Amino acid sequence: MTDPSQPELQEEPPQLKFLRRLVTTLTAVMIGGLVVVITLLVIRLSDDGPSFPGQITLPEGVTAQAITFGTGWVAVVTADQRILILDPETSAIRQEIDLKPAQ
After folding, report:
1. Within 10 Å of residue 76's Cβ, how many Cβ atoms?
2. List of residues 6+ apart from 99 with CB closer than 8 A
3. What would the 3-class secondary structure string for the chain be?
4. Mind listing the pLDDT tens digit for each residue in 6-58?
């Protein structure tokens, strides 16, 4: 008869060893992937991107409908169907494009 205080140690099957190692490896890979994703998000979101000009002065009587920013320029779509390309520092008009209705 065996002593209950001394449990019998049986060797586990090879499939169980393989499964335990596989789960441990998967856990390590998932933790590493999560660290990489969080790191990339922090790097991406901390990038300043384009700077928003403090103040843009439009010519007299011009109403803006839409505005977009590029590197070194600002484009304003006006209510009278024009696109004004402005200098972001001085608000000077660099280029003016008339929009024609589609035919």
Report:
1. 21
2. 77, 81, 82, 83
3. CCCCCCCCCCCCCHHHHHHHHHHHHHHHHHHHHHHHHHHHHHHHHHCCCCCCCCCCCCCCCCCEEEEEEECCEEEEEECCCEEEEECCCCCCEEEEEECCCCC
4. 777 778 888 999 999 999 999 999 999 999 999 999 988 887 655 556 688 88
